[in-house]
Design brief:
The protein is built from four helices and 32 strands. By secondary structure, it is mostly beta strands. The strands form eight sheets. The protein has a five-stranded antiparallel beta sheet, with no helix packed on it. A five-stranded mixed beta sheet has the order 25-29-28-27-26, with no helix packed on it. A four-stranded mixed beta sheet has the order 4-1-8-6. The longest helix has 12 residues. The protein is globular and about 75 Å long.
């Protein structure tokens, strides 16, 4: 009798029923919204995948009219009479429901670029997905900040420390992948990115910059393609081998070996040098500019110049405002503010003092990029705020200026997070759409610096892609 009752209970619970799909879409665009938390009354939680789907399989909810709370960074569902933001739906095996959510962010969340289960719920529900590896690619679970560059007609992507499936410690020697450009075999940037990782032959990724000698992880920045004396395009990076305190122990320039698919060091220096490549570079008018975000260091845009530190110039205050000076430490936004405060620099000579366009408060930018935008015919800055709120390092700002070196005066917040970081944001200018009207940018979504615990499953420590429609932003 006990066995019969147990079998009857299993039947009633429908453990093998087809999943129910709840999809959350942006009410403005109709696109699925990733990273929406869907929570039941009894605290069962789902997080929508990159198509906005949550696959619900819980047997106790099947055949029930169930309430789900909805919440997401920079998105909002209206409150009911008791203050709950959510709705009740009929949960049925194989059923579907679509829910619209209001976007508060100016920027639109598109998809996750890296990590596992990017379209896990879509696959579980039998929905079509745009990328070739929707569940697990290269054995990668999570990746730190991205430094991509277009090299010989393809996009080369490089990330920092990388998590694996088999053990809590993964690759600490930089990870790399390639993808095709949109319109040249690659996906439209509004759909996603098909990454092909450089593998180790054992189901995981290999290190991109093997550096011998003392120290630990090897981190890359300032990846850029430049011509050599014969006009042949070469790919360079600035590498740092760090110690146990994550401080650079030794640094240098690396050049890509096309046969081995790794960066090889071509020069190195002690980390006491005040000027060397940093941030996310760009090439314009014969120079290669470096900054994070402000372009305050440059060298000639050649393979020969980038490896010679005495060829670099820093953008520094001068008698008539600012000028390029050889072999000097670049200025920062904070240092410029100090010079204004002590009277060394006049306020009207400032180049990098941005303020909130709505409230006038100063905005301290931590990192980001500056890129020329053909649609606006101006330069665009995307950067994350220092000491922001509600997240310490998750508030992203947008600004424009007539020149890359400014003056940068006002900024508008375009992305917010609830006590969650989105650090090292980067404009992927090679993805710009409709003549620059659509700007695509990514960043690292992580608990680091802004939250203790409560990491978002699958999403934490990965790269998220956003899009700005510049036509919708007041000028």
């Amino acid at each position: 009798m006990t066995a019969l009752l147990l079998l009857a209970g299993l039947s009633l619970g429908q453990p093998n029923a087809a999943p129910f799909g709840l999809r959350v879409i942006d009410e403005q665009t109709g696109r699925g919204v990733p990273l929406v938390e869907v929570r039941s009354v009894h605290e069962r939680r789902w997080v929508t995948d990159s198509a906005g789907w949550a696959a619900i399989t819980e047997p106790e909810l099947m055949g029930r009219h169930a309430f789900f709370h909805l919440s997401s960074h920079g998105y909002e569902y209206p409150k009911d009479g008791f203050g709950n933001r959510g709705l009740a739906v009929d949960v049925t095996p194989g059923g579907r429901v679509t829910v619209k959510i209001k976007r508060i962010n100016v920027a639109e969340r598109l998809y996750r670029i890296t990590g596992a289960g990017i379209y896990a719920d879509s696959v579980q529900l039998g929905e079509r997905v745009p990328i070739a590896q929707p569940l697990l690619n290269g054995g990668v679970l999570g990746q730190d900040s991205c430094v991509p560059a277009v090299y010989r007609g393809r996009i080369y992507w490089f990330w920092g420390d990388t998590n694996r499936v088999g053990y809590p410690l993964g690759n600490f020697n930089t990870t790399g992948a390639v993808s095709d450009l949109p319109g040249q075999g690659g996906l439209s940037p509004e759909l996603g990115v098909n990454l092909t990782y450089f593998g180790d032959g054992k189901g995981f990724v290999k290190g991109m910059c093997p550096i011998e000698g003392p120290g630990g992880p090897v981190w890359l920045e300032s990846v850029v393609a430049l011509p050599d004396a014969q006009g042949r395009e070469r790919l360079f990076c600035c590498w740092s081998k760090v110690d146990a305190n994550m401080a650079p122990k030794t640094q240098g320039i690396g050049m890509w070996n096309d046969e081995r698919n790794v960066f090889e060091p071509v020069t190195r220096w002690e980390p006491k040098i005040d000027w060397h490549p940093f941030g996310q570079p760009y090439v314009r008018d014969g120079f290669c500019y470096f900054g994070a975000p402000w372009p305050v260091l440059r060298c000639r845009a050649t393979a020969e110049a980038i490896v010679k530190l005495d060829s670099y110039e820093a953008y520094l205050p001068a008698a008539d405002g600012y000028a390029w000076r050889p072999a000097a430490k670049p200025i920062t936004q904070e240092r410029e503010a100090e010079l204004i405060k002590n009277g060394t620099l006049r306020a009207d000579q400032a180049r990098f003092q941005v303020r909130d366009v709505d409230g006038g408060k100063p905005v301290s930018i931590h990192t980001g990029t500056v890129r020329y935008n053909a649609y606006l015919k101006q330069w665009v800055m995307i950067g994350v705020q220092n000491y922001g709120g509600p997240s310490f390092l998750g508030e992203v700002w947008y600004a424009t200026a007539p020149e890359a070196t400014g003056p940068w005066t006002t900024a508008r917040k375009v992305l917010t997070h609830d006590k969650y970081s989105f650090y090292n944001p980067r404009q992927d200018e090679f993805l710009d759409g409709d003549g620059g009207r659509y700007v695509y940018f990514e960043g690292t979504y992580a608990t680091t610096f802004s939250r203790q615990g409560e990491a978002t499953p699958r999403y934490d420590y990965n790269q998220m892609m956003y899009r700005l429609d510049l036509a919708a932003i007041p000028r």
